Amino acid sequence: MYETTEDLEALQKLLDDSYAGAGPHLLSIHTPNWRMSAERIAETLTGMVVLNLATVNSKGEPIQGPVDGQFYRGRFYCGSARNSMRARHIKSRPQVSVSHVRGEEIAVVVHGTAHEVDTTSDHASGYRALLVEIYGKAMIEGHWEGGEVVYWEIEPRKMFALAPQVGS
Predict the structure, then answer these.
(1) Superfamily classification of domain 5-162
(2) pTM: predicted TM-score of the whole model, two decimal places
(3) Distance between CA atoms of residues 57 and 116, nearest Å
(4) What is Dmax (Cα atoms) for the chain?
């Protein structure tokens, strides 16, 4: 878990605000006793997690596919080859949705904006260390089999997180 106290407070506020603006159908499923707290999300989403990343193409059509993701400092991050279609979509239209789902055990959904991460910056040093921990140095040296790598931080606008509670 890489989150600070401030990160967890901001994440909890985002969750609370998102649920406050949610519709009746979502609220009928995401009952308070099944919602994940910020702390539980940070404890659960460690290492590499598979994210379903939805982008929008030039025709306004949604395109969704799995990517490696990381939950770091209260936000999702993910990456792809710079020459990939999703990278082109995000460069033109950075609004995205991501979800991490494990059967009926957990569902975390974020709607927001993807911002490219400069992994060489001092600001990204912690994220860079996480990438090295997960993948080794090859992934941050800028290349993999698919070409140059680009990483994004997803700035959340809305976030919903659901996990059945034991004994519910």
Answers:
(1) Electron Transport, Fmn-binding Protein; Chain A (2.30.110.10)
(2) 0.92
(3) 18
(4) 48
